[in-house]
Design a protein that fits this description.
flat, four-stranded antiparallel β-sheet, about 160 residues, 2 helices, Immunoglobulin-like
């Protein structure tokens, strides 16, 4: 008995901003089958009862079971935030094999200039003694909300 083949067409979107999500990986019955394009749109074929999984870095995986042809499926992916432990960089390295290593290295008064400034979302990424902690995400929630509000105001 042959299984009926279904055609599934739709779009992937961010569940908060509703912006299209490009390049979402789509697996059907455990095999890579499709990927959404730059506009978040996709099309693939499967059989009745097959399940599909939608994955994108920084988002939670979404599953769907298909029982009929769908030509306007909207897949909303929610953000997945992972809290990381604090990481501290400490300067205690001494080159091995030479007692006169300081003669081979030039030191400057202020070798690193990468100020964090007043932006609360900024992270200093270079220099001795830097520290990174907390949630890492494309934008913080407050920044996403600010951008969403700004877009609504600009569209009016």
């Amino acid at each position: 008995m042959a299984h009926a083949q279904l055609t599934i067409t739709g779009i992937t979107r961010d569940s908060v901003t509703l912006e299209p999500l490009p390049f979402v990986s789509i697996q059907v019955a455990g095999k890579a089958r499709a990927m959404s394009n730059i506009d978040g749109k996709f099309t693939f074929t499967c059989h009745i009862g097959d399940s599909s999984a939608y994955t994108h870095m920084g988002y939670r995986k979404k599953f769907k079971v298909h029982f009929k042809n769908e030509i306007s499926l909207t897949v909303l992916l929610g953000e997945s935030v992972h809290l990381l432990k604090s990481v501290t960089f400490i300067d205690n390295y001494k080159p091995q094999g030479s007692e006169n290593w300081k003669d081979a290295v030039q030191f400057y008064k202020s070798p690193f200039k990468n100020p964090v400034g007043t932006d609360p979302n900024a992270v200093q990424t270079f220099g001795v003694g830097g520290s990174i902690s907390g949630a890492l995400s494309y934008f913080s929630k407050s920044e996403k909300d600010r951008r969403k509000y700004q877009k609504v105001v600009e569209d009016q």
